[in-house]
Design a protein that fits this description.
Elements (H helix, E strand, L loop, with lengths): L1 H11 L2 E7 L5 E6 L1 H5 L2 H15 L6 E5 L4 H11 L2 E7 L4 E3 L10 E9 L3 H12 L3 E10 L11 E6 L4 E2 L5 H4 L15
Parallel strand pairs: 3-4, 3-6, 6-7, 7-8
Antiparallel strand pairs: 1-2, 2-9, 4-5
Amino acid sequence: MSDQIMDIFLRTGALMEGHFVLTSGLHSGKYFQCAQLLQYPDYTEFAARELLLKLSPLQVDLVISPALGGIVIGYEVARQLGVRSIFAERKEGPLVLRRGFKIEKGEKCLVIEDVVTTGGSTQEVIDVVLANGGEVAAAGVLVDRSGGRANFRYKMASLIQVDVKNWQPDECPLCKQNIPFDKPGSRPIKR
């Protein structure tokens, strides 16, 4: 199945090659721009269905995702499960619930993300769930580019797990070759 998923990433232009600065501040020669895949409803529906198969059995009350990258896939996963979909977003710092979103005490939450590199955003969403009295049922991600090193205390599944080489800025061979970088993510670069 991962070959079929990877083919979709390639056909939609969601897997990019070049010199990229990731949200974590790390540099990489590959970037997964899941928005390119998620602009196609049929691919989004397929990806959500396949991710849910990897996460089953699963009993949840709501799906929560980080803004911006996880919103579309989180919504589709929630639609297929027949549950609410909410998202956490930044307001001058860590992720928080805004827009009147609430998690009721004891609600079982599924955290859905587009890409995990270090797991920082996913962990922030987990922290939001716990701080609001919810329970984390599992985490699902389209692409785990950590090679399985991003680790949470909860069940986690990904459509694709790859071990993409990342570098600290001062160790980046692409920087040493003076190759210009792109910063395609939605958040400011961590320094």
